[in-house]
């Protein structure tokens, strides 16, 4: 039987960045304390000015702009495309990364995970009505970029998520049918399975 855990945006703890240049709202993680020891971690960062990113050596990062005009990243000397709302971009957490804001502050959404410890899949979806899918992941995370999204699995329907709320579903790792319901809302579905 799957276990639900609803994480409300109003309750996310604020933590300093590793490089001290800003702060992050931590949504969820699998284990550990502070800025180390986790196998995966989800967070929201407010980026007020261009500058360098913290290094997370041994981790993979997937970043998505939630609010604001967007940014460009220089990763180990290579320029990214312009990253705008809900356009996910993946890079090595140990890379040297410089961020250039396109037009003012942004808010972004981050998945950081250890590829040695977890297989991960992240996809942004716009749900209008019902969307059925199947997953064999051990952990599913549903993040609501906009409010009004809910999830059903094993005959259980979650509460409705508000903007930036997250639902953590701990499953058995066997194939389950998942139904997402919303009236035209954007959300991110993340699937994590231990290696």
Description:
0% of the residues lie in helices and 57% in strands. Strand 2 (14-16) and strand 3 form a beta hairpin. 29% of the residues are buried. It is globular. The model has no long low-confidence stretch (mean pLDDT 93). The strands form 3 sheets. Strands 1, 12, 13, 14, 15, 16 and 17 form a 7-stranded antiparallel sheet that branches. It has a 6-stranded antiparallel sheet with strand order 2-3-4-11-6-9, with no helix packed on it. With 195 residues, the protein is an all-beta fold.
Task: State the end-to-end distance.
Answer: 21 Å
Q: How large is the share of residues in beta strands?
A: over 45%
Order of helices and strands: EEEEEEEEEEEEEEEEE
Question: Count the helices. How many?
Answer: 0
The residue fraction in helices comes out at: under 10%
Shape: globular
Extract low-pLDDT stretches.
none
The whole-number mean of residue pLDDT values reads 93
Beta strand count: 17
**What's the story with the biggest beta sheet?**
7 strands, antiparallel
Q: Structural class, from secondary structure content? A: mainly beta
**Rg (CA only):** 16 Å
Give a concise summary:
The protein has 195 residues and is an all-beta fold.
């Amino acid at each position: 039987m799957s276990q639900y855990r609803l994480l409300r945006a109003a309750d996310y703890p604020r933590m300093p960045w590793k490089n001290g240049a800003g702060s992050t709202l931590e949504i969820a993680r699998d284990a550990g304390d502070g800025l180390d020891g986790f196998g995966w971690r989800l967070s929201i960062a407010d980026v007020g000015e261009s500058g360098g990113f913290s290094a997370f050596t041994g981790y993979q990062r997937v970043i998505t702009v939630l609010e604001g005009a967007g940014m460009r990243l220089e990763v180990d000397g290579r320029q990214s495309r312009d990253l705008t709302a809900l356009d996910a971009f993946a890079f090595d957490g140990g890379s040297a990364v410089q961020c250039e804001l396109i037009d003012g502050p942004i808010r972004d959404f981050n998945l950081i995970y250890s590829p040695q410890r977890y297989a991960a899949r992240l996809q942004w979806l716009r749900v209008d009505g019902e969307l059925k899918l199947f997953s064999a992941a051990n952990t599913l995370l549903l993040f609501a970029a906009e409010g009004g999204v809910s999830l059903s699995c094993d005959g259980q329907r979650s509460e409705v998520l508000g903007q930036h709320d997250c639902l953590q579903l701990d499953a058995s790792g066997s194939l389950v049918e998942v139904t997402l319901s919303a009236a035209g809302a954007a959300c991110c579905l993340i699937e994590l399975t231990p290696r």
